[in-house]
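Technical note accompanying the year-one report. For the benefit of new consortium partners, we illustrate the data format agreed upon in the data management plan: each record pairs a sequence with a structure-token string. No post-processing was applied to the example shown here.
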Amino acid sequence: MHYLVTGHTGFKGAWLVLLLRSRGHTVSGLALEPLEGSLFETARLTELIEADRRVDIRDAPATTAAIREIAPDVVLHLAAQPLVRRSYLNPRETFETNVMGTFNVLEAVSMTPSVAAQVIITTDKVYRNVDQRAGYRESDPLGGDDPYSSSKAMADLLTQSWVKSFPGVPTAIARAGNVIGGGDVSPDRLLPDLLNSYSQGDPASLRYPLAVRPWQHVLDCLNGYLALSDALLAGSGRGEWNFGPGDESFVPVGEVADITARLWGDGASWNAPGGEYLHEANLLALDSAKAIQQLGWSNRLLFPRSVEWTIDWYRAVADGHDARDVSAAQIRAFGELH
């Protein structure tokens, strides 16, 4: 099976390439250049990819030409501007990438006869957030206060409208939240920021130590995406799906920092300097009962072990082990969990 991953040079995209290859699939990618020091670079993923295209999904003709040339069987659309704080700094880029970029991918796929299924990845932040402890269900209203969240809600609604207006390629929408794992170098993400500070011997600075997030290992999230694409290929799976962790993973940012500092050692610490910051959600959780019951998917790594695996990855690579080998070993270990 030939999979096309948009956004394959990003954190989740790179892990998805490795996961798909471990299952024997051919993988192509369409994305912007990777960040310096990214998993895509350190694991040398260009060696594993059939067609590695540098395309901005805001460019409709280039996106269509690339997807038609690659002619994949399945499209997994992850490409996005994924950062809340960056969306405040550059809202135009965020809306153009997340909304019109998604439109361009949907349109290109509709003109590519080889595609048998597509999964559009949005986010848990598409829901109208009222800080409820109970997880949001797929039928709950969408919303979004910041440019990132609202742009992804728009992309979600766009996809729902597209599949109703132009039925054809079996399509599903996957919504997931904060993922952690080795190899993330994106700015303004908790684990990379913590580990960057700890590795340099500096205390980490937290904006919202009391904010609660549902932390999930990247492999659990991606395993959900692939369970969904498998369902589409088997004739089911259309619609919207949540892939989030259970209540035990709803942990305050400060507690994550404490656990990470303890695992890292070397006197690692953090502080919360206070001050005014841009709005970010205080509590956000998903109800994944639908995926558990209908797809047979479930999280294999609980929160403490997810953090341990993340720290182990960074430690191993810092000690000179090959990033691809370390990642592959974790994928094999993940496959043995039930």
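Partners are asked to follow this layout when depositing records. The domain at 2-180+214-250+282-306 is CATH 3.40.50.720 (Rossmann fold).
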